[in-house]
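Sequence in, structure out. Go.
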Amino acid sequence: MLSDAPRDKAGGSGISIQDDAKGEVHVKGLSSPQVMNEEEALNHLFEGETRKTIAGTTMNEHSSRAHSVYTIHIQSKSRMESAEKVIHSKLHLVDLAGNERTKKLEAAARMKEANYINKSLTFLEQVVVAACDSKKDHVPYRQSKLTNLLKSSIGGNCKTVMIANIWPEEGYLEETISTLKFASRMMKVQNEAVVNEL
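Output:
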């Protein structure tokens, strides 16, 4: 469920992330409601959408001003094999806030948010590149709350799909190119990791 943690004094997320004894990452203060069908799961997703931080900028009237992560834990049992065998899976649906050029933002508050957003996207790219480089001894997952939360979906046994939203107009050319470069680098390193594992 969503956290009611207020933003910190610097304007960043007030959430706290912890690792348990098994190495699993948890966000303090969140509950994990059990759902039995698709409708119940979608209701929680829609609730999250209504509570997302959104504000108008010169580029986007309904701009997401923070990243959001919707996590589904799935337990499945085979009807043919032993009833004791349970497969545990985790699905992260991540909505990354848009990368916006600070020179195009008029409000000081929006500029501070954009700096946080752009910084966290840079950290995410650095972590993905490091995780997919077999020569790297250390992957800096703890570099940001986002990368720490998503570490099981970046390295290890995972599959990633990225959907990049772009606006094909001349006024948004810089952002479009930046988004496409980011997406292509992310997919390139993920594909290289799959090839290396084979």
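Check: DSSP finds five helices and six strands in the chain. The domain at 54-67+75-197 is CATH 3.40.850.10 (Kinesin).
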